[in-house]
Amino acid sequence: MALTDDRRPVAAGHVPFAMRDLLHVPRERYYDRGFYELEREYLWPRVWQMACRLEEIPRPGDFVEYEICDQSILLVRQPDRSVKAFHNTCRHRATQLCKGSGRLGGQIVCPFHGWRWNLDGSNSFVYGAEGFASESLRPDDIRLQECKVDTWGACVWVNMDPDARPLREALAPAAGLLDDVCVENMRVWWWKETVLNANWKIAQEAFHEGYHVMGTHPQLTFGLGDDYPVGNVEYTAFENGHGRFRGRFDPTAGGVSQGRGSEAFLERSRILWEGQDAMTLERDLHVFRGMKNRVPPGEDFPTAAIRALFDYAEGAGIPLRPTPEGMRLWGGEVFMFPNFIMIPQFGNALSYRVRPYNDDPEWCRFEVWSLTMYPEGDEPGRAELKGRFASDDAENWGQIPRQDFSNIAGQQRGLHSRSYREHRLATEWEQLISNMHTELDRYLAG
Asked: Where is pLDDT greater, at 298 or 403?
């Protein structure tokens, strides 16, 4: 359900620096220690969050650790291929059980005193059990404590709140939008991360609008400069803090071309591939280039190119089957509160997850996935993080993400200027930002 124009910020009670309207965001929300502590206490333990992709734990016994602030959660693939999520701490003396990712040998073992648990969290062994009082070893007390867990979009989602509402209810209506572009069929092309000197909200807000393209990515405007059509993007703020933006284009063209001819379409596709190797991949560019001299004069080239892409996918066994409504999202974004973004296009997607880092309100961990669809039966193996790279590393980040990362760090520094008090948001172009902050205040106010 989209929000109506008469929506108002929640009465925030004890929340400091609360949103008083939809047009202004107090700067303290991005660096104040007290505000960060409220997020740590009232947001992250109570909200559904994407913890890992399913292909990170493809086989029974595979595990991955998910960290958020000072909490560590262990995700374990079960023998029946379901997933369980445990608080990553020994029930004896709190030792962390697993770190990073890997494979368990059928048991979860504490490295300190050797206590063991089955993959379902039930305790299987206590070394020297005869030395403990029976009330200290009750089976329900010493089994690993679980978090709520569910799957959607080829990802595992967790919530530390045992009373949390169901995942699909919390993700509505954003999950339904992405179902239309078949995100369940997407797998990792590459996965990298960087650490940014910026609050986690500042970092993701850079992608809540297309308003920045003219100033940040001038190569994508084809020399239009100030005449680049900002009104070609439609924004919708949804309930639950989610949001969407998409191009106001013919859906058969995917909202990716400012021009209708072959040269404009091919050049934009080339820039997107070379600039980030996501959303548009080299494979797509080859298909499009193959149509350059095959489209009759007067026929719309992007439409013919997209048709050729569908023909190629069908022949290759690639499950590219978006709905017409889903195709209208190509080149746009779906944001899922609090910190997950997907930008789909051509059966691919760019995906972001942003988290606080090192217990510091002014640093964040920024992960980037390039996702695509592989031929059925030819999907890659276990997904692995390629590495953590500096935000200005030109060998590992394309031009487009480097431009974005530079803005993010500069914005965080600018917040501390004595002349600056609050953001002034556009009523349309930046409404996803205010919607996210309004939902955040609902959590912090309880």
From this structure: 403
Burial class (CB in 10 A: 0-12, 13-18, 19+), 289: middle
Identify the residue whose tokens are 């693939």. 77
Within 10 A of 440 (CB to CB), how many other CB atoms are there? 26
pTM: 0.93
How far is residue 446's CA from residue 443's CA, in Å, rounded to a whole number?
A: 5
CATH superfamily, domain at 49-163: Rieske [2Fe-2S] iron-sulphur domain (2.102.10.10)
The mean pLDDT value for 342-353 works out to 97
Residue 176: partners with Cβ closer than 8 Å, 6 or more residues away: none
286-294 CB contacts, 8 Å cutoff, 24+ apart: 287/312, 291/262, 292/262, 292/266
What does the block give as tokens for 32? 């104040």
Q: Are strands 101-103 and 62-68 parallel, antiparallel or unpaired?
A: antiparallel
> Cα(308)–Cα(316) distance, rounded to whole angstroms?
12
Between CA 417 and CA 360 the distance in angstroms is 19
**Given this model, what pLDDT does residue 248 score?**
59
User: How many angstroms separate the CA atoms of 108 and 88, rounded?
Assistant: 10
Residue 130 one-letter amino acid: E
- DSSP helix/strand/coil, 292: coil
Instruction: Kindly report the CATH number that applies to the domain delimited by 170-254+320-444.
Output: 3.90.380.10
Averaged confidence pLDDT in the chain: 93
| Domain residue spans of the chain | 49-163, 170-254+320-444
Give the per-residue pLDDT at 9.
60
* pLDDT tens for each residue of 22-43: 999 999 999 999 999 999 999 9
State which amino acid sits at residue 381: G
Q: Cβ(247)–Cβ(228) under 8 Å?
A: no
The model's pLDDT over 56-100, given as tens digits with 9 standing for 90+, comes to 999 999 999 999 999 999 999 999 999 999 999 999 999 999 999
